[in-house]
Amino acid sequence: MEVGSNYDLDISQLYYTEDNIYRYLANFNTIYTDSGRSALKLLNRLIPCGKILLPSYICESVIHSYDGFEIDFYQITGDLDIDVNDLMNKLDETVKVLYIMNYFGKVKKELSDILVERRKELGFVIIEDTTHSILTRACTIGDYCICSIRKWFPIADGGILYTKEDISMLKENICNRGGVFPSLDAMLLKHMYLKYHVDCNELYREMFYSVEKNFDKQNGIYFISEFSKKLLKCFSIGEIMCKRKENYLFLKEKLSNLGIAPICFEENMIPFTLPFYIKERDIFRNKLIENKIYCAVHWPITNVHLRKNEIALDISKKIISFPIDQRYNESHMQYIYDIVKKCCIYS
Ligand SMILES: Cc1ncc(COP(=O)(O)O)c(C=O)c1O
């Protein structure tokens, strides 16, 4: 058995469904891009330039999207909540944009009311990053939302900028890539490897790697590829929600026997992954890799400023995520648990 890492694509399982992401976001004005970064760069054409407040725990690619802005960071706690006092101290009339993130699917209502009040007083714009939380709630208080949708579905490329405002004028800034996106073949190869044992493991891994490198280097803003756009009509949001929740709850329950608890949990959330803290994370992660369980780290920190932030650095050193997405069922979750148990006993 093998669990985690990039999606493979099995076109034989696809069927058209009305219950797709387009319907889920039908109440918003949307622009589908190739990546979350393209959505952010596009939004930069609309938001006021000046001071932006980013959370102190965030992916590097988001920070880079604000090169040229005056960036300040507000503190995130070990529970991956906003440090309200720190944020309130930093939110003054110099702040033009506030960036918020709902980590791993958890959406906090209490703080929203305070922030909405503060926005009324000060007039800043709120960008809500829903990359982890889009299926818990499409939007809470963001004036604009962005999501790296390629992390939720087996599509080669995909990001969304969505809002209640009219954003159609932004479309003239976007290039068309055309039919397919480069990592589509890697996703097909991965499926051939997993299902038919074709000897192409190294090949598709290199392909995925080089596509991610190209995303890092890309300057232009692109629409989502036509193929991914069509694929998105074939994924049922309801089914994905159920599957993720089922997997998450099953694994959470099992892991509690080993004293492992997820960092973020709320009864009504649709989880992105199952994140938890573990000492000597990299040793643990390597043991899992030996057993073909590939866990993501959200996120390694290289940003000079954030490397001085003890809390962010500590989170980044200890955090690890189990995959619980719709590709998997109870047997995969049981496999993860069995291997983790073995690793804990022998560590
Ligand atoms: C929270 C978050 N937002 C946005 C992005 C950017 O998305 P993309 O990689 O599709 O450009 C990422 C990337 O990992 C992310 O983790």
In brief:
The protein is an alpha/beta fold and 347 residues long.
CATH superfamily of the largest domain: Type I PLP-dependent aspartate aminotransferase-like (Major domain)
Which of globular, elongated, flat, extended, rod-shaped describes the shape? globular
Instruction: Say what the CATH topology of the largest domain is.
Output: Aspartate Aminotransferase, domain 2
The percentage helix is 25-40%
Classify the secondary structure makeup into a structural class.
Answer: alpha/beta
Note the gap between the termini. 22 Å
Q: Tell me what portion of residues adopts beta-strand conformation.
A: 5-15%
Mean pLDDT: 95
What's the total number of strands? 11
Largest sheet at a glance?
Answer: 7 strands, mixed
Question: What's the layout of helices and strands?
Answer:
Elements: E1 3-4, H1 21-24, E2 29-33, H2 36-43, E3 51-55, H3 60-64, E4 70-74, H4 84-90, E5 95-101, H5 109-122, E6 125-129, E7 144-147, E8 159-163, H6 184-196, H7 201-217, H8 226-231, H9 237-256, E9 274-277, H10 281-290, E10 293-294, H11 310-318, E11 319-322, H12 330-346
Parallel strand pairs: 1-10, 3-4, 3-5, 5-6, 6-7
Antiparallel strand pairs: 2-8, 7-8, 9-11
Helix pairs in contact: 6-7, 9-12
Bound molecules: pyridoxal-5'-phosphate.
Pyridoxal-5'-phosphate binds at residues 35-37, 59, 61-62, 101, 129, 131, 148, 150, 159, 215.
Write up what this structure looks like.
With 347 residues, the protein is α/β, with parallel strands linked by helices. The protein has helices at residues 21-24, 36-43, 60-64, 84-90, 109-122, 184-196, 201-217, 226-231, 237-256, 281-290, 310-318, 330-346, and strands at 3-4, 29-33, 51-55, 70-74, 95-101, 125-129, 144-147, 159-163, 274-277, 293-294, 319-322. Strand 3 (51-55), helix 3 (60-64) and strand 4 form a beta-alpha-beta unit. The longest helix has 20 residues, at 237-256. The two termini are 22 Å apart. The protein binds pyridoxal-5'-phosphate (PLP). Residues 35-37, 59, 61-62, 101, 129, 131, 148, 150, 159, 215 line the site of pyridoxal-5'-phosphate (PLP). Pyridoxal-5'-phosphate is lined by residues 35-37, 59, 61-62, 101, 129, 131, 148, 150, 159, 215.
